Structure formats: C-alpha cells, structure tokens
Amino acid sequence: MKKNVYTCFCVDVIHEGHLNIIKKAAELGKLTVGVLCDSELVRYNRFPILSIEERIKALLEIPEVSDVVIQNCIMYDEIFEKYRPDIIVHGDDWKKGAQRAIRENVLENIGKYGGELIEFPYTNTENVLKVEKRVKERLSMPENRRSRLKKLIEIVPIVKTIEVHSGLTGLIAEKTIVETEKGLDQFDAMWISSLCDSTEKGKPDIELVDITSRLRTINDIMEVTTKPIIFDGDTGGLIEHFVYTVRTLERIGVSAIIIEDKVGLKRNSLFGTEVVQEQDTIEHFCQKIKQGKAVQLTEDFMIIARIESLILEKGNEDAIKRAKAYIEAGADGIMIHSRKTKPDEIFYFCEEFRKFDSKTPLIVVPTSFNSVTEDEFAKYGINIVIYANQLIRSAYPAMKQTAELILKNHRAQEADKFLMPIKEVISLIDVL
C-alpha cells in the first residue's frame, strides 16, 4: 500500500524548485499538495496574485499530484488530524528564520500522530531566483499594489498598518515577520503620515510640506516595497487641488487617501480643543469627496473620510450624522478618531455605525487608546488599524541616546551595544 505523502505550497507560480520537490515527493507515495488559503498566505507575507481556484487548478495539472486540498492554517495541526499523512515533504530552507516555527509544529505533530519528515535541498538556481524576483516585481506595479487594500479588507479580519517615512522604514514594514501562538504574522499595509513626513524633514505638522515633496517620500518607499499604501492627506486642501492629488496618487499606485473634515490651519488632532481647530461643514466636505471620486479612473482607489467630531468634543451624534452624509457622498471608508485613552466612544460609534451600515470599512488610529488589541477592534466591525507614528517615535529616542553616549565618552564604543550591526542593515536591502 502506498504511503500518504503531503506537501504544501505558499506560492502563485510553480517554478523548477517546486517541481523538483513534487517529483521527489511523488516517488515516496501518493502525493497530496496543500494550497495555503488566502488569509494565511497573507500572514505568511505572500500576497496572492492568482485566486485560490487558479492555484488549485495549476497544481492538479501536474501529473505527479494525486490530490489538492486547501490548508486553512499555516500550522499543520488540522492537516495531521484530518489526513494523518505518513510523510511530510518540504524544502530544507525552513530551518532558518520565521519558518522555523512551522517546522517545529510539524515535528510536534509527528511526535503526536506519527509519520516522517523528509526535507529536500532547496533549489536555488538563477532561474528560480529570477521567477521569485519577477513575482515580487509584479506586486510592486501600480495596478497590483493599488488594488491590494480592498482585497485585503475582504481576506483578513483586520488590516494591520504601520507608519513608514522612508525607504528603510518601508523595508521594516515589508520584511518584519514574527512567530505567534497562532502562526506567523506581519503588517499588511503602510501608512504615510503627514506628521511623520514633516517631522522627518524637521518641519511642523501644519500642511507645510507640499504634495511634491511628499511624493518623493512615496517614491522612495515604493521602490523597495510591495505592500499597499494609505496616504495621510490631512484636510485634502482646496477642492480644486484635491482632485489633482487624487488623480496623482491613483496613477502611481497608492491604495487610499484619508482626509479629515477640518478647515483652516491644520493642527494635530491630539491637541483637541487646546488649540483652535475648525470642523468643515458637512456640505462642503461632501462636495470634496464627490469631486475626488469623480476624477478617479479605477474602482481600486479609496477616499476615506476622517471624522473629527470626537476630537472636537461634538459627540457621537454629530459623528454619526457626518458618517452617513460622507458615505452618501461616495466615501469608501470612515475613519473615526479620538484622543481619549479609553476606547468607549470609539466602540459606541462603531456599534451605532454598524446598525445602518455593515459593509463600509471602518478605520481607527489607536495612538491614545493603545491598550486595545486587534481582535477587540475586529469584534466591533473595524477593518483597518493604523499604527500611525510608532516607528518614528521609537527611532528618535534611540538616535538621541547614541548621540549623547558618543559625546560623553568621546568615542563610539559605548554605543555599539545599542546598534544594529551594519551587515544586518545592509542585508535588509535587496540588490538588483
């Protein structure tokens, strides 16, 4: 009787490396290939270009493959429980990095259910590297990058978004993967904040840095990343200017712009009523949304309306009233903001909002109410969480400490223990 052999692929394109493993695995018995589901594929830092149906079809066309199943979790517990494979086959490249957690999970299940793990050398030919590079390049193209945010909202329980303000921080957002009790995890999207963009340039956060300068930041990030970008558009400026911003961002591959319903000199929302901040009229802000939507050329780009009613202490009734009007005007999402440390008013807004709208994405930026977990946000119908300034806020204390240590000791040795080795810095950057 043939042994049951199982392997799983987390890819869209089957190259010679995968075919080598499939051929060797099929020699060991009846081969079943797992296709990782979309939500887990995203957690694994692989965004699907092809649909899961297309991926299944491609594998079934390979003669050595007897069956194809959907693997719903990157860990193998369900696979062992359901299929009891005699042999698990995998490339030996998962012995290092975040993939080690998956390998350990397989070994744990073998200890529990029995079976054998066979690892074949990973095929690392020039052709394989070329194929993998091409897949990454496809994801970075404007049309693919721009459409990803809407797809992510459909795929994952909540889209985890981290602030980036340079090519280097973009690489951190792109490549950081961690092991959790649920498997692997990573950020889904990037937020280009006006606050961080201004701070990086040593400028105040008052819409002083113009769109041309901010586009250079976007370009630096886009050159080295593939993940979708949400752009902080502040107030959006004059309607006559906003339409050009929309058209430009859409063309270069940005997924969304968030604009806040305030007028006059832009001040950071966390100041609240401590400084003069004037909320826009509903009618004028709706007109801005309508004009922005009118100039779009695709269905992919999103205009998200940020409501400042709670920031300005006008209450949830005003916030809900505005949300309804903005959605009617064409807004693709609603961001609700608060400067309170407790999330009560945010949760109340979400509950009331979901009573009349179950589809429009909700976005939060939990800078103040930072004790709330993503799972809690998801329970209230929130679709996107944005960690809006944590990278830049963590960078500056570290750099200041290093500068002080060098000044105090008149040398750099004492600072070295706080520094990332230069080889690790260089390894973040891919060479063409």
Question: Layout of SSEs?
Answer:
Elements (H helix, E strand, L loop, with lengths): L3 E6 L6 H11 L3 E7 L1 H6 L8 H9 L6 E5 L5 H7 L3 E5 L8 H14 L2 E5 L5 H15 L1 H14 L3 E5 L3 H9 L1 E4 L2 E4 L2 E4 L1 H7 L10 H12 L6 E4 L6 H14 L3 E5 L1 E2 L14 E2 L2 H13 L7 E6 L7 H15 L3 E4 L7 H13 L5 E3 L9 H6 L4 E4 L2 H20 L12 H6 L5
Annotation field: number of helices: 17
How many structural domains can be distinguished in the coordinates? Answer: 3
Which CATH top level class of the largest domain fits? Answer: Alpha Beta
Sequence stretches where pLDDT stays below 50 over 5 or more residues: none
Distance between the termini: 49 Å
* Outline: globular
Might you state the CATH topology name of the largest domain?
TIM Barrel
CATH architecture of the largest domain, please? Alpha-Beta Barrel
Q: Assign the CATH superfamily of the largest domain.
A: Phosphoenolpyruvate-binding domains
Report helical residue fraction: 40-55%
How is the quaternary structure best described? single chain
How many strand segments? 17
- Strands of the widest sheet, in order across it, are 6-9-10-11-14-15-16-17
Radius of gyration: 24 Å
Broad structural category: alpha/beta
Written overview of the protein:
It is a single chain. The protein has about 425 residues and is α/β, with parallel strands linked by helices. It has 3 domains: about 130 residues, HUPs (Rossmann fold, 3-Layer(aba) Sandwich); about 250 residues, Phosphoenolpyruvate-binding domains (TIM Barrel, Alpha-Beta Barrel); about 35 residues, no CATH class. It has an 8-stranded parallel barrel with strand order 6-9-10-11-14-15-16-17, surrounded by 8 helices. Helix 14 links the parallel strand 15 and strand 16. Helix 8 packs across helix 10, helix 11 packs parallel to helix 12 and helix 13 packs across helix 14. The longest helix is centred in the C-terminal third of the chain and has 20 residues.
